[in-house]
Amino acid sequence: MLISFPAVATAQDGYWPEGKTFCVTLTYDDGLPSHLEHALPQLKAAAFKGTFFWLGEEVHRWSQDDLDQVREAGHELAGHTIFHPCPRKFDWVKAGNASEDYNDERMAKELDKNLANQINNGVEQGTATFAYPCGCTYIDEDKHSYVPLVKERFFAARSTRNGIEVPGNGNIDLFDVKTIAGDQHDLAFQLAQVDAAKEANGWLVFMFHGVGGDHLAISADDHREILRALQEDDSVWVATFQEAAAWVKSKQENANAKQDNAEPGTPDSATKVK
Ligand SMILES: [Zn+2]
């Protein structure tokens, strides 16, 4: 008998809350005008909450009114640094603001400010999430990781690594959560990702930039079709990045605690030898 394996290893059903069999998170990077123009009304119509990784200060593209609008609609506001440091190899990176131009001190300061911006906009202390600009997790000329600085301040972080997480199969790294880029390939590809996540009882985190405008855009129609497909599926839990990460974290902590209790050699589990 020929057995074909799915691309993503399937986890046991029963992992997700309220009888849902898989999870989809809708994330939007960079605080773009098209999020307000297209994504927000579409999310409202579908009654879904998204996660918005926005920037502040010099590359602030949203006004305080815009931020209030996103927060009051119940969406998650989340961190993405302030100056959006990315590797110097990209020609659009401003001199002085490349990943290589940062040391720990500068990045720590910027993350502090970034976190404070979330808290000032209603995010609860200890729950703020983060997305690495350009998916780049290193700084300085020696390209060392700044993930420890993110861990000290944020609850979880989304990477730009391509893929679908299946936390039901074992612990995942909540500071390196995989994603599917919404601007890549066509609508059929995006809908196939939803099917793959469902098949695997997994967690699909969509990463959108522009929606019907701005950079790395998905068309407004395609974005609406993805939401429609999710609306039509009773088995999906559409959760913010924070909600889903909190669920996975508690499951992982429970599983780890159980494992600790079942350590061999303890009186209960020791094999009796006559
Ligand atoms: Zn970005």
TrEMBL record:
InterPro entries for this protein: Glyco_hydro/deAcase_b/a-brl (IPR011330), NODB_dom (IPR002509), Polysacch_Deacetylase (IPR051398)
One GO process term, biological-process aspect: carbohydrate metabolic process
SUPFAM superfamilies: Glycoside hydrolase/deacetylase (SSF88713)
Gene3D superfamilies, alphabetized: Glycoside hydrolase/deacetylase
Secretion signal span: none
UniProt KW Acyltransferase keyword: no
NodB homology domain span: 21-136
Region feature Disordered, mapped onto this chain: 250-274
Keyword Kinase assigned: no
Keywords noted in UniProt: Signal
A GO term for molecular function: hydrolase activity, acting on carbon-nitrogen (but not peptide) bonds
The name this protein goes by in its record: Polysaccharide deacetylase
Organism: Mariniblastus fucicola
